[in-house]
Amino acid sequence: MITYLQMIETDEERSKFEQIYKEYKGLMYHVAYERLHNEQDAEDAVQHAFVKIAENIDRIEPAGPKTKQLVVTIVDNRVTDIFRVRGRHPTVEYDELANVLVEQDGTEDLLTSCMLKLPDIQRHVIWLKYYHGYTLREIAKLLGLSLSNAQKIDQRAKKKLSELYEAAGGSL
Amino acid sequence: MIMEEMLRAAAEKSSELYVNHFEHTYDHENQHEFSPQFEKKTQKLKQKAKHPFFNHAWTRAVAAVLCVCVVSFALCMSIEPIRAELVKIFLVYHGKYVDVVCQSEEEPPTSIEEYREPMLQLAGTEREVKSGQWWYAVKYTRDDMIEMIYRQHTMTTSVMLNNEDCVITDVEINGNVGKFFEYEDEPESMLLAWHDNEYSYIITVYSSDIDKELILSIAESVR
Questions:
Q1: pLDDT at B182
Q2: At what angle do helices A11-36 and A39-55 cross, to 10 degrees?
Q3: What is the CA angle B23-B24-B26, rounded to 5?
Q4: Which of B2, B49, B146 shows the shortest C-beta gap to A111?
Q5: Which of B105, B37, B110 lies closest to B80 in space, CA to CA?
Q6: What is the pLDDT of residues A86-95, one digit of tens each?
Q7: Residues 19-78, chain A: which have Cβ within 8 Å of B?
Q8: Looking at this predicted complex, what is its ipTM?
């Protein structure tokens, strides 16, 4: 078992990690459980996510709105991995979710809606790259991918996003 | 093409919407009570974190042992009979991979005596060249993305290629037999391995803009 606090070098980083752990472990579990509907699996997903957080703590900001979205992305990605390995399909239909989320928000942002319709892994890479500002190398490390795989996913995601956007009436 | 500013704005907005969706149903007051096993593991981790010197020393010791093993392995692999024997063992225990061993009709060079490269190259890409005693490689990138990697090896070099979720077909490159790999889900979309009785070659393609016909043409242009 990888001991994630062992990876943290300084008192400041240890403190940052513990703050994130305390602040978000409940929400992370909630996200994992909503998708997996299994307590053990959800806990495993959260634990794996914290390993990744600890490995990359020097590139993560202290607890805050952006960090909250980051940790949710990491645990969400782990859930997707679990589905992929077990050959299961997620219980949420993302086209439907995308429409619901955009309607709830009251905006008609076409690109936002299209982004929510991307396959999980593509959406995660796009979020990490364009919102959180990580390089593909850092994203590969965060998500447990090879660099070339992260590059490929980024390429496919942008291509898919363009296709969705055009199909929905957007002009490029 | 979607502008980067649009991508950033949409990424921020969609991420926020996604998290908010889960927060709507998240009860801060009644959080999940983690299992005793989860808490125990976390407690152990926090206790270990109080002794960083011991943990780092342990990590360094493991890293040192691994380095010794890798160096010893590399030294063994430099001895032909051992390398051949070990390669046979890899064939047995790594079923996911296929060892492409090329049989030459002549006695091929045992080191790279002449660098060969495709005369037909991808326009607009940057080249990065690396070489060793038994190999020569050129990486083609565009905007920091790898498009293609070309490699030349001695024919005595054993090259393990991923054999999962791919279709392998026979092709001919300048009268010599080659194997063409088309992957379904791997980051590398296509791979071509062939030889010319002197050296073996591999072209690995990562870009979806390069098709099979172009790869074959590139291979046939190697001089």
A1: 86
A2: 150
A3: 55
A4: B2
A5: B110
A6: 765 554 445 5
A7: 21, 25-27, 29-31, 33-34, 39-40, 42-43, 46-47, 68-69, 72-73, 76
A8: 0.86
Q: What is the pLDDT of residue B43?
A: 64
Rounded Cα–Cα distance for residues B179 and B148 (Å): 17
Q: Is B174 left (phi over 0), alpha (psi -120 to 50) or beta?
A: left
- The alpha helices in chain A, defined as continuous H runs, are 11-36, 39-55, 65-86, 94-105, 110-116, 120-126, 136-143, 147-167
CA distance A83 to A98: 20
**Tens digits of residue pLDDT in A1-12:** 334 555 555 666
- Rounded to a whole number, what is the distance in angstroms from the first to the last CA of chain A? 48
B34-85 tens-digit pLDDT:
888 887 776 655 554 444 444 455 566 677 777 777 777 777 666 655 544 4
Share of chain A above pLDDT 70, in %: 78
Q: Which residue has the tokens 């979720």?
A: B165
Beta-strand runs (E) in chain B: 97-100, 126-131, 135-142, 145-154, 159-162, 166-173, 176-183, 190-195, 199-205
Residue B81, SS3 per DSSP: helix
- Identify the three-state secondary structure at position A85: helix
Please judge whether A6 and B55 are an interchain contact, meaning their C-beta atoms are less than 8 angstroms apart: yes
pLDDT at position B44: 59
A162 close to B (CB below 8 A): yes
Annotate B98-115 with DSSP letters as a single string: EEE-PPPSS---SS--S-
Question: End-to-end distance of chain B based on CA atoms, in angstroms?
Answer: 38
DSSP state for residue B64 in the 8-state scheme: H
Q: Is the distance from CB of B54 to CB of A3 less than 8 angstroms?
A: no
